[in-house]
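HUMAN: Mind making up another protein with tokenized structure?

ASSISTANT:
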Amino acid sequence: MKIMDGHCDALTKLYVNPKLDFGKEDQELDVSYPRLKHAGVKVQCFAIYLSDSIQQPTFDHILQMVDIFQRKIVSHSGMRFIQHVRDWHEVEAGDQIGAILTLEGVDALGGNLTHLRILYHLGVRSVGLTWNYANWAADGVMEPRKGGFTRKGKLMLRELETMGIIADVSHLSTTAFWEMVEVYHKPFIASHSNAQKICPHPRNLSDDQIKAIIQCQGQIGLTFVPYFVDSMNLAVPIAGLLKHIDHVCSLGGERQIGFGSDFDGIEQWIKGLRHAGQYENLIEALCKNYKEAQVEAFLFGNWRNFMLGNLPK
């Protein structure tokens, strides 16, 4: 079965440690070419995330990560950069693995919308608006004041919509989420979030938020972060993830379900999902509990339909 993964932080690890090799099965990289190939991952999203170790992130830092993406990931003969619908079709028709470039947090753009347009031309196709805390555009979900968007942040949303960049609400504050629903009129995603009803972590989505994503025909990348799956269990099994699938389905979101592992952005793992090469364990659990057509949709088909409808033509 083909797989699309909507979020990983391999780029950050490659930035922090230049000795890491995406082309080898390096134990420090959850996501590497050999592991993706072994698992049958057909499309992987790679996030540009500037960690807290960079105290004053700038646009130059983002450009350095774009350079790493070009030199260390899509330069690999087995990889193909997906920027347009035609790229997706060519990946599906061939043997290469598709790579989509995303941005997690707009902090380093400094409110400069020209920087945003440059990133579009460099191939960034999805933008997560915040990380956990506030930036110039909006409040993140862990910001104590629980605010929404700034005036400039709302201008950015309109620019995203005009350019056709997909907005990503994972990490966004609840207030900002609902403000975005009013301002951004295209389908949007939560690239790596689970259901708050099943696991009451602030980073997870409420039922009303899930319904809003369903209503706009967006996409939810259920994530493998253990404490987003089950906050009461130190050793989270794959079965815990299925509870989130069942809940989103109960709200009418069967066609909105995909996965966004957050591999390489986590230091704890679900049992049996330690890295991208272990997707087969998730597939086995899914096949025991759902019809084959449902499993194919969760793993790939739902993301495929969304991307073909929202990538630039």
Summary: The mean pLDDT is 97. The radius of gyration is 18 Å. The CA atoms of residues 31 and 276 lie 5 Å apart.
